[in-house]
Structures are given as C-alpha cells and as structure tokens.
C-alpha cells in the first residue's frame, strides 16, 4: 500500500504516542486495581483479626452485651455488611447485619443470607493465663505444640465486606484512566494535525504549484509560509517560476517579432509571386509566340525546300549531260543537308521547349534496331566499313518503347559512327542489365574504330552546337546538335547516354534504357491496309485530285504523277477541294495536312462524314512534313488511308499511287 506524505506524517506522529499512552494507561489501571483489591483484602483481614482479639473475653465469658457492642462497632466500618461471631462449637453467638438502606440489625438468630461480598474470618484464641497469687498474668508466649492451638480455640468471627465500594472505585479508576487516555490521544491527534499543517501542508501546496507550472500557468506561485528547508524550497520554486515566466515572455516577444518579420516577408513574397506570375505569363506568351513563329518558319522554309528537293529529283530523271547530272547531285545533297540542319534545329528547340510528348507503344525490339541500323548499311558499305548488329538472347523480344525517339537516337549514333570512321568496323550490341516482371533495362553499345574522342571533349560533345574542331572531323557535315538531341531524348525516355573513348582507337557510345515489358502484345495498327502494288502497265485513266496551298508542291506532285495517269486535277485550298468533290468522283486524293482555312484533316472528315457523297470512300493520302510522326493518329482518326512525307520524291509518290490506284472499292 502506498501512503501519501500526509498519511505518513500522521502515522509517525500518532502511532508511537497512541501506543505509549495505551500501554501506560493499561499498566497504570491494572496496578491501581490490584492495589485497591489488595488494600481491601488487608483491611478486611485487619478488621476480622481485631474483632477476634476483642471478642476473646466476651466469648470466653459469654457476655452477649459486649459481643453485641463489638458487632455494632465493627458494623460501624463503612463497607462491613455482615458480622458473625461463633463459639468453639461453631454456633452463632452474635450476628449483626447492615441492610441495604443502612439500617443495622444485631441478633444472634438472624437468618444467614446469600453472601455477595468478600468473606474474611479469623479464629478466637484464648490467651494463656498464669495465676500468681490473686492476679492473672497473661502470657504472650505461644505454646510450641500446635495442638495447643485447638485447645485454645474458643470461637471464630466472620466479617463480610461489601464489594460495591471497591467496584465503584474500580469503575472510577477505569473511567479516569480512559478519560486520561482519550485526552492523551486527542493531544497526539492535535500534535499530528499541527505537524501535518506545518510539513505536509506546504508540500501539498508545492505540488499544486508545480502542477500548475507544468500545465503552463507560469503565474502560479507558492505561498511562502515556512521558515525551514521547506521555506527554501518554496522560495526556490517561486524564483524558478519567475525565471521561466521571464524567459517565456522573452521568447514570446521574439516569436512575435519573428512572426511580424515573417508576415512582412510573406507579403513581399506574395508581391514577388504576383510579379513572377505576371512575368511567367509574359514569358509563356512569348514562348507561345516563339513556338508559333517556329511552326510558321518551319513550314515557310521547308515548303520551298521540299519543292527544290522534289524538282531536283525529277530533274535527275531527265536526260542530262554528265556535268549537269553532277550539278544536280551536288544541289540535291546541299538541299538534303539544309533540310537536315533545319530539322535538327527545330527538333532541338522543340525538346528545349518541352513540347515533345512520348508515344510509348508495344514493339519488336529487333525490328526497331534493324530498321535504324541498316538504314546506314549502304553508307557503311560505300566507305568499306563492316556494320554489325548483335542482340543477346536474354533481351526480350517485345518491349514498350517510343519507337520514333528510340530509332532517332540509334540512327544518330550509328550515323555518327559511320560518318567519323574511315576504316574498320562498327558494331551495335544490345544486352540486358536488369530484368523484373514489368521492366527490363537494356544496354545498347555503338562501338566504332574511328578517331576516338579526347578525354577533355567527352562531355563537350553532348552540348548543343559543339563540334570537335579537328582537321579530321572538320570536313564532316553537321550542326553539332545530334548528340545534344540524343542525350535529351534518352533523358526523356528515362535512360542515360554516356561515352568512353580512346583517341586513335575508337569510341563507345552507351545507352542504358529502362523499357516496359508488355503484359500482352498489342501492336498499333498500321495507318493503312497495305494493298498489293499494281503491275507497272499502260498509263491509267483514274482521276487524281491534288490538294495543296503551295503552287510548287502542286506542280511537283503533278509532274511526278503525270507519267502514271492521264487525269490529274489540282486545287489550292480545302474549300476548293470540297467543291470539286461534290461534282467529281476521284480515284485518289492527295491532301496536304496543313493549309490555311480548311486544312486537310477537316476536309477529310467532311468527306468521310458525307455518307452519300461521291468521294465518301475514295482513298485519301495525307502529305505531311511531320518528322516525329505526331500527325499519324490525327490522320488515322480523320479517315485518311496513307501518307507521304515531304519532300515528295518520285519514288514515294509512285509507290503510293501504285498501292492505291485502280484498287479502290466502288462507292
Ligand atoms: P554533328 O555530328 O552534327 O557534328 P554531334 O552532336 O552528333 O554533331 O557530334 C558532335 C561532335 O562529336 C562531332 O562533331 C564529332 O566531333 C564528335 N563525335 C560524335 N560521334 C563521334 C564518333 N563516333 N567518333 C568520333 N567523334 C565523334
């Protein structure tokens, strides 16, 4: 059992005192009761002995008068209630008794009542008498023979002493002792209470104050009423509370100041934020304008360039002198190179402006790699280089990847390797780094035996417009954008592009790329249903409509198609195309995607939606300059059947024509 301070103090103060008082009281009472009883016994015995002595003569002489007087005298003692005197034969010779009302009856024939008091008796002995002359001489010498005692016995006396006075006295003692004990206990209780007030009272008050302080009421103080060690504790706690309060007030003040400063800063921040928002809005507007400008520029620059390339290719097919053919070849190469430069710059700007969106599809990795690598097979062969592709067996066949971007990266690396290597071999190796259920990390290494790259240039080559200015590489064409674009594309795909190289030995470009593993193989439907090409035959009579806002492009397309069909019409806008389609059923429509006013997509949608129109089911071939294939989905959902890319080449347009013409289902 756990006792509180208050209980302990009370216990310590009261228990010993109470015990001592009880013991002493009981001992005292016991002793006094015993003494009382002893005194009574002695008194009774003394009375009876004296009566026996006094009655000797009267009994001896059978003087009843004296006996009566003696009996009365003894009954005069306060607590004697019965006196009986017997002769030697045991017969009552005198008897006296005090009644309950105090009345004395002295009569030898009194009936013996039930005795309730203490009984004392003594024998009446005859004193030996010597007769000398006329006088009796009493001798106090006792005969040695005990038998003499019986000879001397002349009677006996019995005295009964009342018990009541003793009982009263005993009760009185008991009561007094108890009262004294009670007084002692009360005194002890009072002392304990005082002690409790002086010791535990301050301790409890201290506890209360400490609890208040702990609960945060720092204004709480202890009433300093003690003078001893407790007093020191009380003033110590009060000083501590005062110190705490001061420091809290100081802290509060600092917090208030800090809050005020923070509020001010927040206000300033808010203002700056508003200004920033405004600036961002302006920047976004500027960026938007820039993007629009770029899109327009790209269209404006590439459209005539497409015309130049297309006509140069057409020109190359006409009879030319060898010098003219040489010029045309040089012009074609220059136009292609200019197109590559423009496309690279536009790509880079698009990436920088975060305008590239990924198009992750399910694809066969080996197909993607073969397409991208063997594109440069002819160039490598021309330079006498070996070009090899190897794929480890554990590389998954099907992966989830943005085919366009992935191909662009590989093509760029292989193209660089072919471009900068003069002899030896170029290898493209693919292996698996890590695999789990949903992803595989592949490593693609493009190694060459070219001039290599100096260690200090290893990072520089990934910066935009950086070309290594060496006599070996300088003559190679390029913008210095290829690797910058590759690195950003790989970053965008979640991978890493690094290089290690030993100058004079060759370079290794390493692409580490995480690819998704498809749970089911779903390949995107090709844009169109490929149909069997028609055999080259006599000139067809099918009607073809060319829709392009650019006159040169219309001329170019017409020039390419003229040798194939005798019926070609061309219009310069979407509206004109719709008009023409209302009156004529065409067998093939070549439609530019981007045109002012009604663009190719919208015209296609309208034609497809006019269920009973003449050209509801005519094959429509989109013409696009879109390099990243971003227009594919739009064209597909609008209802186009196929597409050709600018610059229009005789080969691509002829192929499309042969694929579709004469094979279109009847409307
Ligand atoms: P570009 O090829 O258009 O000049 P890149 O960004 O593709 O631009 O390459 C930057 C430079 O890095 C190149 O000019 C060339 O000096 C160096 N480089 C790239 N690939 C290789 C390679 N395989 N071997 C040696 N040098 C290379």
List the helices and strands and how they pair.
Blueprint: H1 5-61, H2 64-75, E1 80-87, E2 92-98, E3 104-106, E4 118-125, E5 129-132, E6 135-138, H3 147-152, E7 153-161, H4 164-214, H5 229-316, H6 322-352, E8 361-364, H7 365-374, H8 377-382, E9 386-391, E10 398-401, H9 403-420, E11 425-435, E12 439-448, H10 482-492, E13 496-502, E14 506-516, E15 540-547, H11 551-561, E16 565-571, H12 574-583, E17 588-592, H13 600-609, E18 620-624, H14 632-638, E19 642-645, H15 650-660
Parallel strand pairs: 9-11, 15-16, 15-17, 17-18, 18-19
Antiparallel strand pairs: 1-2, 1-7, 2-3, 4-7, 5-6, 8-10, 11-12, 12-14, 13-14
Bound molecules: adenosine-5'-diphosphate (ADP).
Describe the structure in your own words:
- The chain is α/β, with parallel strands linked by helices and 667 residues long.
- Helices cover 51% and strands 19% of the residues.
- A hairpin with a 3-residue loop joins strand 13 and strand 14.
- It is rod-shaped.
- The C terminus is likely disordered.
- Bound molecules: adenosine-5'-diphosphate.
- Adenosine-5'-diphosphate (ADP) binds next to helix 9 and helix 10.
- The site of adenosine-5'-diphosphate has 20 residues, from helix 9 and helix 10.
Pick out the low-confidence regions: 471-475, 525-536, 663-667
Give the CA-CA distance, first to last residue: 105 Å
Per DSSP, what share of the residues sits in E-state strands of 2 or more residues?
15-25%
The distinct bound ligands, ions and cofactors come out as: adenosine-5'-diphosphate
Roughly how many Å is the radius of gyration?
69 Å
Shape: rod-shaped
Order of strands, widest sheet:
3-2-1-7-4
Helix content: 40-55%
- Please summarize the sheet with the most strands: 5 strands, antiparallel
SSE class: alpha/beta
Question: Count of helices?
Answer: 15
Mean pLDDT: 84
DSSP summary, beta strand count: 19
């Amino acid at each position: 059992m756990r006792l509180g301070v208050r209980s302990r103090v009370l216990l310590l103060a009261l228990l010993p005192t109470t015990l001592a008082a009880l013991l002493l009281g009981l001992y005292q009472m016991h002793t006094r009761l015993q003494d009382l009883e002893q005194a009574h016994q002695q008194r009774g015995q003394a009375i009876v002995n004296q009566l026996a002595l006094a009655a000797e003569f009267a009994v001896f002489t059978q003087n009843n008068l004296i006996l009566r007087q003696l009996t009365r005298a003894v009954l005069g003692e306060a607590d004697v209630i019965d006196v009986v005197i017997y002769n030697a034969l045991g017969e009552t010779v005198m008897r006296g008794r005090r009644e309950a009302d105090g009345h004395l009856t002295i009569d030898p024939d009194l009936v013996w009542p039930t005795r309730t008091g203490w009984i004392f008796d003594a024998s009446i002995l005859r004193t030996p008498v010597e007769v000398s002359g006329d006088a009796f001489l009493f001798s106090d010498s006792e005969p040695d023979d005990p038998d003499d005692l019986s000879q001397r016995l002349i009677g006996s006396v019995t005295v009964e002493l009342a018990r009541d006075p003793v009982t009263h006295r005993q009760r009185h003692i008991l009561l007094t002792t108890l009262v004294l004990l009670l007084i002692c206990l009360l005194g002890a209780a009072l002392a304990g209470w005082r002690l409790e007030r002086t010791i535990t009272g301050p301790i409890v008050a201290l506890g209360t104050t400490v609890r208040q302080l702990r609960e945060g009421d720092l204004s709480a103080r202890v009433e300093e009423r003690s003078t001893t060690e407790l007093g020191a504790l009380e003033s110590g706690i009060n000083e501590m509370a005062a110190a705490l309060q001061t420091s809290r007030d100081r802290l509060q003040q600092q917090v208030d100041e800090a809050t005020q400063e923070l509020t001010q800063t927040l206000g300033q921040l808010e203002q700056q934020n508003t200004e920033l928002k405004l600036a961002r809005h302006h920047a976004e507007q500027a960026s938007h304008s820039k993007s629009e400008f770029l899109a327009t520029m790209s269209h404006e620059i590439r459209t005539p360039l497409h015309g130049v390339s297309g006509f140069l290719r057409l020109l190359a097919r006409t009879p030319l002198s060898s010098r003219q053919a040489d010029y045309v070849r040089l012009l074609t190469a220059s136009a292609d190179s200019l197109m590559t430069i423009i496309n690279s710059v536009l790509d880079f700007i698009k990436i920088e402006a975060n305008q590239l969106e990924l198009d992750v599809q399910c694809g066969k990795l080996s197909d993607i790699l073969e397409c991208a690598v063997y594109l440069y097979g002819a160039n490598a062969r021309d330079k006498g280089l070996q070009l090899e592709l190897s794929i480890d067996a554990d590389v998954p066949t099907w992966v989830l990847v943005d085919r366009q971007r992935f191909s662009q990266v590989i093509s760029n690396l292989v193209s660089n390797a072919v471009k900068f290597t003069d002899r030896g071999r170029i290898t493209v190796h693919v292996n698996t780094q890590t695999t789990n259920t949903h992803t595989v990390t592949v490593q693609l290494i493009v190694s060459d035996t070219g001039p290599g790259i100096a260690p200090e240039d290893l990072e520089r080559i990934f910066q935009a417009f950086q070309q290594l200015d060496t006599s070996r590489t300088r003559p190679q064409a390029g913008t210095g954008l290829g690797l910058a674009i590759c690195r950003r594309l790989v970053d965008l795909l979640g991978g890493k592009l690094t290089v290690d190289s030993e100058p004079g030995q060759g370079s290794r470009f390493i692409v580490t790329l995480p690819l998704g593993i498809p749970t089911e193989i779903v390949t995107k439907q090709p844009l169109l249903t490929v149909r069997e090409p028609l055999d080259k035959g006599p000139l067809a009579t099918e009607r073809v409509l060319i829709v392009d806002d650019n006159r040169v492009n219309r001329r170019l397309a017409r020039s390419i198609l003229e040798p194939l069909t005798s019926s070609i019409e061309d219009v310069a806008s979407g509206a004109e195309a719709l008009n023409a389609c209302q009156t004529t059923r065409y067998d093939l429509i070549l439609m530019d995607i981007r045109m002012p006013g009604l663009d190719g997509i919208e015209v296609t949608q309208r034609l497809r939606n006019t269920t009973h129109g003449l050209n509801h089911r005519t094959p429509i071939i989109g013409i696009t300059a879109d390099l990243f294939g971003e227009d594919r989905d739009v064209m597909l959902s609008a209802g186009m059947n196929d597409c050709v890319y600018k610059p229009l080449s005789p080969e691509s347009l002829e192929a499309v024509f042969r694929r579709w013409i004469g094979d279109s289902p009847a409307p």
